[in-house]
Amino acid sequence: MSAIETAKEVFAEQATALRTTGEAVGVEFEQAVSMILNGKGRVIVSGMGKSGIIGQKIAATLASTGTPSFSVHPAEAYHGDLGMITNQDLAILISYSGETEEVIRLIPSLRHFGTSIIALVGNKESTLAKNADVVLDVSVQREVCPNNLAPTTSTTVALAMGDALAVALINRRDFKPDDFAVFHPGGSLGRRLLTTVNDVMHRDLPTNSPRDSIRDVIVEMTKGGLGTSVVVEKGRLQGIITDGDLRRSLFSHDEINDLCAKDIMTPEPMTVCGKTKFAEAEMIMLDQKITSLVVVDEEYRPQGILKLHDAVLVG
Question: Taking the model in full, what pTM does it have?
Answer without folding.
Answer: 0.65
